[in-house]
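Issue 218. Parser rejects a valid record. Input:
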Amino acid sequence: MTERLRTPGMTLPEKVPVTCYPPSTLEQFRRMRDRVSQKPYAKYFNEDLYMYSDIVRAVRTPLAPEQVLPLKDVSRLLEPGYPEEGGENGWCALSDGTAYVASNTRFPGVTGEMIDWWFWWHSVEPERYALWYPYNHIEARSSFAADGRLHRADLGHREKWLGSTHRVTEFIGPYHKKIRIQFVEPHDQRHFGGTLTPEGLRATGYKAEVCAVLWDAYLPLKVGEFVHLWRAVDGGLELRSRYWLGHQVYLQLPGLKLPLDYLGGRLGIKRVLAGEEIAYEQFLHDQIEFTNLARILPGLYSEFGPGCVSQK
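Output the parser choked on:
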């Protein structure tokens, strides 16, 4: 069964159903379905998930080395169009074991404000996070939750997530993962080189951006980065994501940064923790979760966004 979409101004291919779910994620879906059933947003908890048909080819074969975007060249995402060498969608492992993922997903009928709203709203309770990917998402706890910031009407959407850290528990394929996601400005000098400036992003049509540094769930160990950039297209937005997992690993101690990247690559540790299999699974995960988010976000925002009785 396929799903056809018609969105004014946006030409979309057919969606094809996702049919492969590891048993652990099936069990997670059943547990969370019972919990979400009592929530006012239960109708957005989708059992049937999809990907676009043109993505299937990118799933089958790893990216070539020349299609990988090094993090130091992230400003290339400010160039118009798409890379001439390809690589807008795909996955691969680098020679040192770093997992690299590039993903482009469609967001018909979605605005930048909806994105900024979602990135705090989903962290209020685990059931909201599960809407995003009902089989794989377990929990996202915001560091801003403790002081009541998530419920303050005097703050803007970005003030409720930018600068926070989310402790996330989820499945990536069959793998149960826990990680800390530290949300930073796109022009963060330390991790993204300072090149994704607000002026540059707006000048090239980007309407929302979510960039983060990834940390081990328990140790002060930096394990990667990602960027999510939503660019305006006819009929909505397109999300251009890039992940560098197991990238430039270091241990952050008080007053000391201890690099572990070279040693981790030489000993094969990065290949075990990230590597080709995680790259493949992360690409699938990204395509499924963001295609589903695009599907539910306009309705959720309309019912629970600013000005709605249930906005909290």
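Fixed in the parser; the record now loads. Residues 1-8 have pLDDT under 50 and may be disordered.
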